[in-house]
Amino acid sequence: MSAIDPTTGPCPCGRTDRRDKPIGYALCCGRYLDDFENTPAPDAESLMRSRYSAFVLERAEYLLATWYVSKRPASIEFEPGIKWLGLDIRSRSVLDADHAEVEFVARQRSSTGTATRLHERSRFVREGDRWYYLDGDLQQPLA
Ligand SMILES: [Zn+2]
């Protein structure tokens, strides 16, 4: 486990402000994770980032609440001992007012020390004033 408390330190998603300073959790994904009933993430990238933070913090209820209902799993199991190392947003495309895609790389290390890069192009859909994660395509590393 990290010695840094992600709820008071920099946001796990790694977002920075205009001066490249890390934004604190409470001012970044914490707003959505801790009050998702009243404060939905305002765009697909913010939702993507907040879902990464939810994986880091093992907040299953947030992950389920932001999963589009037809694609939502019954429950989420977190792999024990996983350490998330960082999130890198590669691209964002707004397809129309209610559909967007975000391509990202998330890095993690398992309890046995195996490092993995999860490279995915995720699809998001908006219903009312809320964005939801729909699904995603894993991207194969370039040969
Ligand atoms: Zn964040």
Briefly summarize what is shown.
This protein is α+β, with helices and mostly antiparallel strands. It has helices at 30-33, 44-57, 60-65; strands spanning 83-96, 99-109, 115-127, 130-138.
CATH topology: Nuclear Transport Factor 2, Chain: A
Largest sheet, order of strands side by side? 1-2-3-4
Structural class, from helix and strand content? Answer: alpha+beta
Instruction: Give the tally of β-strands.
Output: 4
CATH class: Alpha Beta
**Spatial shape:** globular
Bound compounds = zinc ion
Number of helices: 3
Mean pLDDT: 93
Model description:
The chain is an alpha+beta fold. It has a single domain, classed as Nuclear Transport Factor 2, Chain: A (Roll). It has helices at residues 30-33, 44-57, 60-65; strands at 83-96, 99-109, 115-127, 130-138. A four-stranded antiparallel sheet has the order 1-2-3-4, covered by helices on one side. A hairpin with a 2-residue loop joins strand 3 (115-127) and strand 4 (130-138). The protein is globular, with a radius of gyration of 15 Å. The structure holds zinc ion. Zinc ion binds next to helix 2. Residues 11, 13, 15, 28-29, 49, 53 line the site of zinc ion.
Set out the fold topology.
Layout: H1 30-33, H2 44-57, H3 60-65, E1 83-96, E2 99-109, E3 115-127, E4 130-138
Antiparallel strand pairs: 1-2, 2-3, 3-4
The site of zinc ion has 7 residues, from helix 2.
